[in-house]
Amino acid sequence: EINPSELTFMKELGCGQFGVVRLGKWRDQQRVAIKSIREGAMYEEDFVEEAKVMLCHPKLVQLYGVCLKHRPLLIVAEFMDNGCLLNYLRQKGGALKEAWLMSMCQDVCEGMEYLEAHSFIHRDLAARNCLVNKNNVVKVSDFGMTYVLDNQYTSSSGAKFPVKWSPPEVLHYSKYSSKSDVWSFVVMWEIFSEGRTPFESRSNLEVVNDITRGMRLYRPHRASQPLYAIMYRCW
Ligand SMILES: CN(C)c1ccc2c(c1)CCN(c1cccc(-c3cc(Nc4ccc(C(=O)N5CCOCC5)cn4)c(=O)n(C)c3)c1CO)C2=O
User: Fold this and answer.
1) Where along the chain is ATP bound (predicted)?
2) Is 4-78 a CATH 3.40.50.1970 domain?
3) Would you say 19 and 37 are in contact if contact means Cβ atoms under 8 Å apart?
4) Residue 143 near residue 50 (C-beta atoms within 8 A)
5) Which superfamily does CATH assign the domain made up of 83-234 to?
6) How much is the pLDDT for 73?
């Protein structure tokens, strides 16, 4: 539990599934990201229960604490200077050497390996839900899909559902597991595509049919054949 009077709000960083996120300071010196949870956006009791299971790993964006005494609920997290991985790839992708692309994939793997070891299923692994710090280290973030109340996002026919990152068993039976998180290593395809959208010219409905019939993402232009074989095995 963090005392809100020890928080200073600074610039807005953007808006996510639960509401506005701001850069802030804790006790005037520690930079943090502060999420204000919009009323009715989250199963708050479930989230607070989960927050007590402190997941802690260098490749997971660290949850520092929550402010529960007032509304909106505040979530205080580790601040990542370079923002989300997807925008980072789109801005800097071409300038990143293959070694950097590999290192970002490894960061995501290490974070996800830790989640699996702790039987935690992410459910929405994607480059948009990973963050980059000032040393260009990538960390997995926003493993909060379970608490989202918006069924446009949680139902597999909803407009916001991550169809292009989901395996057949999730699309057809909502069967989530660490294996479905492995399928979402579509992130590796995003990294080696420098932030392109998977199945860019296909609608979500077309992708459900394509994937069910066995179609898979093509080899990204910056991925060697052996690297493509690795991402392909995830699908
Ligand atoms: C349920 N799911 C999957 C969710 C739920 C909530 C969210 C998301 C998914 C993902 C999006 N999101 C969200 C929304 C807004 C902010 C953050 C967000 C942004 C951060 N950092 C930065 C840093 C810089 C910049 C920036 O402005 N630039 C421009 C100049 O070049 C450098 C980058 C943006 N964000 C950060 O550290 N955290 C912890 C969260 C986040 C990530 O947290 C959410 O809040």
Assistant:
1) 35
2) no
3) yes
4) no
5) Transferase(Phosphotransferase) domain 1 (1.10.510.10)
6) 94
Ligand 1 atom nearest 79 alpha carbon: 37
Q: Write the residue with the smallest CA distance to atom 13 of ligand 1.
A: 16
Q: Residues with catalytic annotation? A: 124
Written as one letter, the residue type at 162 is P
Pairing of strands 19-26, 7-16: antiparallel
**Res 145: pLDDT:** 84
200 to 64, 78, 113, 197: CA distances (angstroms): 36, 32, 28, 5
Domain segments of the chain as ranges? 4-78, 83-234
What are 134-137's contacts with CB under 8 Å, separation 24+? 134/81, 134/82, 136/82, 136/100, 136/104, 137/58, 137/59, 137/107
